[in-house]
Amino acid sequence: MEILKCENVSKIYGKGETEVTALDKVSFTVEKGEFVSIIGPSGSGKSTLLHILGGVDKPTEGKVFIDGTDIHSLSEDKLAIFRRRQIGLVYQFYNLMPVLNIDENIALPHLLDGRPLDKERLDQVVEHLGLTDRRKNLPSQLSGGQQQRVSIGRALYSHPAILLADEPTGNLDRKTGEEIIDLLKESNKKNKQTLILITHDEALAMQADRIISIEDGRIDRNEKVRNLV
Amino acid sequence: MNNKKIIFQVTKTYMLKNRKRTLVTFLGILIMVILMTAVFIGKDTILGYMQNAVVAEKGSWHYQVYDIGKEQAEQIKALDFVDKFEISKPLGYTEFPKSGNPEVTPYLEVKEYSENLFELMNIKVKEGRYPQKSDEVIISETALREGADIKLGDTIETEFFERYIHAFTVEEQNELIAEGKEAKSIFLPLGFNLKPGDTLKVPDHFPYNENNALIEMIHKPTGVSKTLTVVGIMEEPYFGFPGQGGYIALTGTENTINGDEIVNAVLTTDLRTDEDCFEEIAKILDSSKNSEEREDAISRGSKYTTQDGEVISFDKGSIVSNDALLAFTADGQNDSLNFLVMFCQVFFVVLITAASLVLIYNVFSMSYQERCRYLGMLSSVGATRRQKKWSVYYEVFSLLVPSLPFGIGIGILVVKVGMKLLYPYFSKLFGSMLLSIATGRNTEVTYRIVINPVNLLLVVIFSTAAVWISAWIPAHKISKIGPVESIRGNENSKKLKKKGYKSHLGLMLRGKAEKLLGTASVERNLTSTKGIIRSITTFIALTLITAFASGSIGDILASMENEVDLNPGNVFTDCSYMLENTGYLDEDRYLSCRENIMTSDEVSKYEEMDVAYYYGGIPIEYYNEEYICTVKRILGMWFPNATPEQIQDRFFVRGGYRNVYGHPKQAFITLDDEDFNKIAEKAGISLTKYESSETSPMLVYDKLKITSHDCTFFDNDAQKPKYAEYSLKRPLSVNEGDTIELELREYDKDKEEEYDVTVPVDFAGYIDADDVKEYFTLNNNTTFIIISKQTRDNIILKDPAFGKLDMWKCIFFNTNTEYSLLVEELSGINDEFGRSALRSKDVFDLKDFSEVITKIVNVVAVCFTLMIALICLLNLYNSVMGRRLARHKELAVLHSMGMTRKQKNKMLMTENIRLLTRSFIYSALIISGFVTGLYLLINQHYGRVGLTLPVWVILITLLVSMTGLMVFTRICYGHENSMQIIDEIRKESI
Question: What is the pTM of this model?
Answer without folding.
Answer: 0.63
